[in-house]
Amino acid sequence: MNASEKFETSIPDSEKQLPKNPEKDFEIEDEQKFEQHRDKTLSDIESGALQTKEDGIARLDRALHSYDLPEKDVASIRRENQVDAKLKLNSDEVDEITKNATEQISQVGGSPKSEQEGNPDLKKFTKQYSGFWRSQLAEKIRDTRKKILEKKTSAQKQNSEHSADRTILQSEITATEQEFNKIRTELESREMELEEEKNRLISRITSLFGRNKEVSDDAIAKELESKSEKLQAFLEEKRKLISECGDVVIDESEIEKAREEIRQFYEEQKNIRDVFGSEKTRERDISSISKEKGVLFLHTLPVDSYGMGNTSENNPNVNTEKMTSADKTRMVLGIEPTISVSTISLRRENAEDKFQTMYPIGLVIGEGTALSAYGGDAGTYADNPFIRRSKYDRDLRSAVQENFGTNLDRAIKGEAGQAAMQTGWNEVVIENPKVSGIFLDLNRLQIGQDTTKAIDAMKQAFGMGKEFGLPVYGIRPNGEMTELSSEGLETTTQENILAYKCELGTEEKVEGVEKVLKTQEKPNIEIQRKLSEIQAQRNSKSDFIQNQKQRAIYSGKSEQCLSALEYENVAKYMEKTLNRLGDIGFDEILKVAQSEGVGERGLEKINSLFTGKTTSEIRSISESLVQKADLLKGLFENRK
Amino acid sequence: MTKEEIQKQIEEIESIYRSYLDQLLELKKKQDMIISEFSEALKNKKLDELRKKLATL
Questions:
Q1: What stretches of B1-57 adopt beta strand conformation (E)?
Q2: CA-to-CA distance for A188 and A190, rounded, in angstroms?
Q3: pLDDT per residue over A199-211, tens digit each?
Q4: Residues A475 and A393 reside in one and the same domain
């Protein structure tokens, strides 16, 4: 008997007992059965509350029609007695205790110890990685429970009506039986009397003279016989009716089916969780994959001069349209959200055909855990900032994709399959990403004759490199990698690139993310939660200090490159002026510049770069800037 | 979780459930009482009506 059955009628205190929960008697020896038991109890609590309320409504309805009073009088008494307010108060209390009990039960065993290191509790795992599928199943189960509850309520109503019908029919049958018995008795006595009379001699004599009583007695007997038959038929009909008024029995196989679905869901999720736990350190580890497969993981960023694609439809958590590329980098470095990346092969095997990025600029991801991989654009959707899943992959049962190794190999080969769109780039979803640098897709930047766009993108890359302390790399489809922020555009290796992972300080992370959040209309709970987590962390590790030193070096390098691109014209002017007028000092150069009509912005640049510098320093700085700018621009010129 | 831990948690759930049913039963009684009082008031009204009718006969 479950709670809903228990509350069909008022239960006297003496009979008050804990309803038997069928699963309680089972030996619950594993977590799965424990979860089922908990779910069952939660369901019983829910239906108990609902049943109590529905019972109240039904009783109130009966009371309203009990005394055949005018509606006006009934309404008036209802008001005077404050029936609705009292019932509402009671109903609220039912809600309150139901909520409390549900919360208490949900918390039992809420944070059990992991079975293995790295394997979170199954429920926690499904909430974190399989929320979408969990919600889908929960919705279905809720729907089933609701339907069963409706059926139960309807059956109870029908059973109650049937019970009343049975009482009436039973009393009719009893009365008919009594009448029938009476007639049978009378009939039998008449027959006996008739028999006796036939045997009497006098009767035989009187019969000769036609005065025969037999006729009338026979007629009565026949009449009684006929009445008896009619009663018999009437009785049979009533008995048939009463047999049709049996209780309606609910088919509870749907509940069993729902329970089986829950069991299957957890079994499937347990497998995914266990495999994920075992693959995390190698098969899904970005650093290991990069080295083993000879690939780089790239997270592209929109760049103004190349058009900003609107991908906000796949991310309801933040309004990406209001975020710049630097804002997006702040978020990645700040909260390490789960992101989509593409791989490029560095082994130069048909790389020209496969290498393509959505935008020509982005972040090189050197660390993280891969959740899924597709050979094309999988249209991944962010359920929250830390969970992304493909909208196209119908086989997916969790954000943690199964058969990851095979899928990754296909993704690297660019085999889109059915779960992704063939776009030229592949898609790998990574959680907890760490940034190793900024990349520029040099071939992509060379498309078209206008180098202004390419230089703008380069400026954007160096601007971010300066702000966040990130090296900037030029990458080509043949696997050629150049450190653009290095002195002489040195060729670099995958190993060098992946050796560095940028780590911002706690305050810097929070400040950066909060800056981005100011651009957003609505706050995001998950981001706030992550920020609180970050704020609780401290930066005291020695490798963090080392990382900060490296950041400062990369920041300085990027600043130099940015200056070269931004001050190239001023540097050229300074060089030209010094060559023309000889070794004159800064003040004289400034006067010449003013007299020659150099604009306000130009003068500002001269001031900011050369104030207080000696003539030889001015010459040296100018030469260096021009040389660097030529070198960087040459990257595009050479390949035209 | 060990078997013992699971059993302990099952007992904890049962205890919460039992306490919930006690509270729910009390509220059900309270609900029944509210409706009974209302029903009694309706009955009294009907009796008053009948008495009035009798008085006029």
A1: none
A2: 5
A3: 775 656 666 655 5
A4: yes
Domain of A376, in residue numbers: 281-535
Domain co-membership, A453 together with A321: yes
User: Is A117 within the bounds of a domain?
Assistant: no
Backbone angle region of A118, left / alpha / beta, with phi > 0 → left and psi within -120 to 50 → alpha: left
CB B46 within 8 A of CB A63: no
Sequence-distant (6+) residues with CB within 8 A of A93 are: B27
- pLDDT category of residue A77 using cuts at 50, 70 and 90: very high
Residue corresponding to tokens 């400034």: A590
Residue with token string 């300066």: A466
H-assigned helices in A446-523: 451-468, 494-499, 506-517
Instruction: Measure CB to CB from residue A31 to each of B6, B20, B23 and give the nearest one.
Output: B6
- When pLDDT is cut at 50, 70 and 90, the band that residue A591 belongs to is very high
Q: Of A51, A78, A110, which closes a domain?
A: A110
One domain for residues A193 and A237: yes
Residue where one domain finishes, among candidates A263, A279, A295: A279
Residue A296 domain-assigned? yes
Closest in A21, A87, A109 to B34, CB measured: A87
| Mean pLDDT across A222-226 | 79
- Between chains, do A108 and B37 touch, taking CB under 8 Å as contact? no
Interface confidence (ipTM) of the complex:
0.94
DSSP string over A30-52: SHHHHHHHHHHHHHHHHHHHHHH
Q: Does A86 touch chain B (CB under 8 A)?
A: yes
- Asked whether residue A566 falls in the same domain as residue A531, the answer is no
Of the candidates A280, A266, A337, A285, the one whose C-alpha atom is nearest the C-alpha of residue A121 is A266
Tell me the H-state helices in A366-505.
Answer: 404-413, 442-445, 451-468, 494-499
The answer to whether residue A549 is domain-embedded is no
Identity at A547, one-letter amino acid code: N
Three-point CA angle A275, A335, A432, nearest 5° = 25
Is residue A542 assigned to a domain?
no
Interface A–B counts its CB contacts (< 8 A) at 126
Q: How far is A22 from chain B (nearest CA, A)?
A: 12
What is the value of pTM for the model shown?
Answer: 0.64
CB contact under 8 A, A105 and B16: yes
Q: Which residue has the tokens 């899904």?
A: A284
Q: What is the CA radius of gyration of chain B?
A: 24
Q: Quick one: average pLDDT of A43-63?
A: 87
| Two tokens, residue A296 | 């780089």
Distance CA A627, CA A563 (A): 12
A357 and A471 assigned to the same domain: yes
Q: Measured between CB atoms, which of A31, A41, A49 is closest to B24?
A: A49
In a shared domain, residues A161 and A224: yes
Beta carbons within 8 Å of A197's beta carbon, 6+ residues apart: A203, A213, A214, A217
**Rounded to whole angstroms, how far apart are CA atoms A204 and A421?**
113
**Which among A105, A111, A113 is the top mutation candidate for probing chain B, defined by the most B β-carbons within 10 Å of its own β-carbon?**
A105
Which residues does chain A have within 8 Å of residue B26's beta carbon, measured at their own beta carbons? none
Q: What are phi and psi of A300, to 5 degrees?
A: -80, 155
CB-closest option in A31, A48, A69 to B1: A31
- Is-contact A470 A435, C-beta < 8 A? yes
Report how far residue A464's alpha carbon sits from residue A555's, in angstroms, rounded to the nearest whole number. 9
Beta bridge partners of A365: A297, A435
